[in-house]
Amino acid sequence: MVxxxxxxxxxxxxxxxTVRYLKETLAASDFASIAPSDFYILHFPVATIPxxxxxxxxxxxxxSVNPMEFAAVFRPHTRIREGLVxxxxxxxNEFSCAEPADLILFLGEEPHIRWGAYCDCVxxxxxxxxxxxxxxxxxxxxxxxxxxxxxVRASVSSADLKGRLEVxxxxxxxxxxxxxxxxxxxxxAAAEGIPMSSLVLEIPHYPFLEMPTYPPSIFRAAQxxxxxxxxxxxxxxxxxxADAARAKLNDLLEGNAEFRQLVRExxxxxxxxxxxxxxxxxxxxMEGIDLDGGNGQH
Length: 298
Hints:
Elements (H helix, E strand, L loop, with lengths): L1 E5 L7 H12 L3 E5 L17 E6 L2 E6 L2 H6 L4 E5 L2 E6 L4 E5 L4 E7 L5 H14 L5 E9 L9 E5 L5 H5 L4 E2 L8 H12 L3 E9 L10 H15 L6 H19 L2 H16 L3 H12 L11
Parallel strand pairs: 1-8, 1-9, 9-12, 10-11
Antiparallel strand pairs: 2-7, 3-4, 5-6, 7-8, 10-12
């Protein structure tokens, strides 16, 4: 079973984009879902959260927040046409089956509450359909340039899973901080006796650019899963999309000296495999870049 989630680790749509690609390519059919009613906060009391605090040069700024805009983040989406309620969309969590590949695919939204019960739902399907392995694929933004291959880091439910991943060039995660539903599932997998691996790819952290989708990392994720599962997929369409995305970034690179300098710094750090202190320095550098550079390009 391969899991994809919106939310915490879906930068560049690597998590949901990879699973959706597999679902379409393998013609997987939906067969089960997790009802959303018990797992999401659909109305947040906003009367007591009237401000936003953010940093500006030399000071912290406290600004008012529109309560309706804040509450809208949590509420389901509706569509009303000429007074008729046509649609009401809640968070979706769906399992699909690609039978020839002997693969179950899951696309969901990270739950707000009752993580334990949510994990119960996932493992119920896993047990019922005799799932032998669980995989999550996702992404994090980091100091990797678009001119280099995205790196992959993994966390696993059991140390004996490392050998199979090591031969693919995957590195293993060193992390301490806020956890996600993926970590909860991986921790639970050990007790369930179903091996689980979390595969997290890098996407470039260019804070001055909007990159809602990053095809090079989706391509790399699909390549890795194809190799692990022996699917022999034709990924040429994803490869073309990745090349097109890099070409657009290269065009921008040609027109902006500061962006070129940033990419050179990132390439040097990537090639030297700098430690975390160097990565933090590069993050600060990126946050200070002015992409306009006086030439009006965006």
